[in-house]
Structures are given as C-alpha cells and as structure tokens.
Amino acid sequence: MRILLTGGCGFIGSAVVRHLIRATAHSVVNVDRMTYAASEDALEEARTHERHTLVRADVADLAAMQRLFAEHRPEAVMHLAAESHVDRSIDGPAVFIQTNVVGTFALLEAARGYWSALDAASRASFRFHHISTDEVFGALGDGDAPFTEATPYDPRSPYSASKAASDHLVRAWHHTYGLPVFVTNTTNNYGPWHFPEKLIPLVTINAIEGRELPVYGDGSNKRDWLFVEDHAEALVRAVEQGVPGETYAIGARQPRSNLEVVQTICRVLDDLRPDPAGPRERLIRFVSDRPGHDFRYEIDASHAEASLAWRAAHDFDRGIRRTVQWYLDHQDWWRAIRRKTYPGQRLGTAA
Ligand code: NAD
C-alpha cells in the first residue's frame, strides 16, 4: 500500500513509520508540520529509506493536502497529527482546535475530493484511519467497567474535546459521503522517543538526574499503559484489515496508578543504575493536582484483539525496563530537547 501518514515525526507516528519500514512492504509519505514535539531522529533508519518520504506541511492547509493527494495517490491515510499534551491544552487551547479539529476537517475534505474521483475498485479499497484517544470517553470511577467501543463520549479537557470533535467529523464523513473511514481509540502510550514533558519520560529523566519526581495529587489516578511498539503494530494491522465504519478500542490490560508507575520506574532504574545516595523513591514529591484531572481510563480491548488478531506483547514491567534502558542510552537526545524547549517543571499524565 501507499500510505499517507500524518504526524510521523511524533512519538507514536514515528513508531508506526519505523514498523512500516521494518516489518511491511508498504511505502509511506509522512506529512508533518514539525512542531516542538517532532523529531526526525525518531525515524531512525526509516529517515533515509526509499519507501519513506518526509513532507513538511500543515494538515490544516487544504490546498497543500490536495496537492499531496494528487501527487502521491495514496491507497490509505493514517491520521495521527495532533497537538497531544493535556497540560498545554489547558494553558493554550487555540492550537488544539486549529490542528485537531480544523486540521482533521481539511484532511477529510482533501481525502474526499481525491477519493470521489477514483475508479470504483480503488474507491472501495481506500481507507481513512483516524487515530484517537480513550480520553474522549471521559473518566471512570474505581468500580466502573472499562471503556468499550460503545461507551458514550464525555470529554473533559480541551485536548480530549478537540479529539472528540475530530472523531465526530470523521464518522460524519463516513455516514454522509461514504468515505471508508474507521477510528481507533487507544489508551496511554509509553516507550522510546516520548517527548520529555509526559509523565513516564519526565519521571525517568528526573530520576536519572537525581531530581525531584513530581506526582499529581495523591498519585491515585489510573491509566492503562500500552508500549508504543505494540500500539504501532495494532495500528498497522488496523490499516490493513480495518472495516469501514468500525471503531477499535485498543489497550494493554495493564492498569497502574500514577504512584505505581513512578515507583516502578524508580525500582527499575535502581536495578539498572544504582544510586549511591539510596533508592530513588526518596525523590517522590506530591504536588497540587491538574485542574479537572480525569481519575481513571481503562480499555476493554476484546473487540480489537479478536478482529485484528492482536494483543499487547509487553506487560508493564517489561515495557518500563526497555523504556528506562532507552532513556539511559539516549541522553544526548533528551538533554538537547530539555535545553531547547523544556518549559520548566511541567507534568503530564496523559496522551
Ligand atoms: P506527538 O505530540 O508526539 O506528535 C504529534 C506529531 O504531529 C508531531 O510530529 C507534530 O509535529 C505533528 N503535528 C502537530 N500539528 C500538526 C499539523 N498541524 N500538521 C502536521 N503535523 C502536525 O503525539 P503522539 O503522542 O505521537 O500522538 C499521535 C496521535 O495519537 C494523536 O492524534 C494523539 O491524539 C493520539 N493518541 C496518543 C496517545 C498517547 O498516549 N500519546 C494515546 C492515544 C492516542
């Protein structure tokens, strides 16, 4: 397949591009605006591979998107480009509406114009895969059943509201125009090349440097944590096998409280690189909570696992061990980012 993939220099997009180049014969046109969250280094060997082309463009630029469809004639779209950090959406929501809502609208319109002019067989096999989050479903209480594809939408932050809006647009383009779309809603990811403002990389880096480890509230907020390479594999299976009109809720069945996450990172780092000053748990500090902090997200991934013949391969301990080792081995990358863009002691717990 020729795949037009947006946001391929971000955390998850780059994992998908690496997976496409390493494990499939598909070619990929990677459309990325190269915001603060993008890193060409994350493409690794895909960066110069003949089946990968990087185009710097804004998904909200309709004319640019129309030109890309005409030039590259994709057989599938994987739409990952987004503003993705909840804390940033609270401080400055405008860019979230622009990229996540207006950008998705422009991409859908460019895709629809191109798809309508295809011959019947190409129209039938074309796929538009929209990548979204479980945060659109709102928050769970401790005893609530996990989210499924049938859970009603109830977004609470500017980030999740903008993603919910984009999900609605994508489904409307299916029902109204027949565009062959499907949506994946996935739980929190972690792993290599994760920008150092989100919870797991932030805590790992602070722990490596012997700094304080800030934890929101009492640390009891829970997330279901999926290793990014497992997610990339699920997304590629979905673009190959996904059925138009469907939704796939993707998760790892690895729920952990934020405090458990931080304690696991400390334990693994103590094991890999002992600190003469003692166990890193001494660095944990509880700080005032994020406004409107959703308590718990968790996915029941049964439908996606059965229909895509996929299951997360990493349990949380193995994924964290690989992640901590990766941050130990890639200090040049995150130290350069911290010097250039890191806006002080920011926290993240969400996508
Ligand atoms: P990220 O912030 O790491 O990367 C986003 C990428 O999109 C960056 O490379 C950025 O330059 C690019 N981009 C931003 N605005 C753009 C624009 N206007 N035009 C073109 N490119 C633009 O995000 P991520 O964590 O890799 O998330 C990717 C997608 O997966 C998002 O849609 C996000 O909502 C979704 N998601 C993320 C998680 C998670 O845990 N990170 C979980 C579920 C779903």
Structure description:
This protein is α/β, with parallel strands linked by helices. It has a domain at 2-188 and 227-251 and 293-314: Rossmann fold (3-Layer(aba) Sandwich). Helix content is 43%, strand content 16%. It has twelve helices and 13 strands. The strands form four sheets. The chain has a seven-stranded parallel beta sheet, sandwiched between helices. The protein has a two-stranded parallel sheet with strand order 7-10. α6 links the parallel β5 and β6 (181-186). The protein is globular, with a radius of gyration of 20 Å. It binds nicotinamide-adenine-dinucleotide. Nicotinamide-adenine-dinucleotide binds at residues 6-7, 9-13, 31-35, 37-38, 58-60, 80-84, 99, 103, 131-133, 163, 186, 188-189, 195, 351.
Q: Give the biggest beta sheet.
A: 7 strands, parallel
Radius of gyration based on Cα positions: 20 Å
Structural class based on helices, strands and sheet pairing: alpha/beta
Bound molecule types: nicotinamide-adenine-dinucleotide
Please summarize what this structure is:
The protein is of the alpha/beta class and 351 residues long.
Topology (SSEs and partners):
Layout: E1 2-6, H1 11-23, E2 27-32, E3 52-56, H2 62-72, E4 76-79, H3 86-91, H4 94-116, H5 120-125, E5 127-133, H6 158-177, E6 181-186, E7 189-190, H7 199-209, E8 213-216, E9 222-224, E10 226-227, H8 228-241, E11 247-250, E12 255-257, H9 258-272, E13 284-287, H10 302-308, H11 316-329, H12 331-341
Parallel strand pairs: 1-2, 1-4, 2-3, 4-5, 5-6, 6-11, 7-10, 8-13
Antiparallel strand pairs: 9-12
Helix pairs in contact: 1-8, 2-4, 4-6, 7-9, 7-11, 9-11
The structure holds nicotinamide-adenine-dinucleotide.
Nicotinamide-adenine-dinucleotide binds at residues 6-7, 9-13, 31-35, 37-38, 58-60, 80-84, 99, 103, 131-133, 163, 186, 188-189, 195, 351.
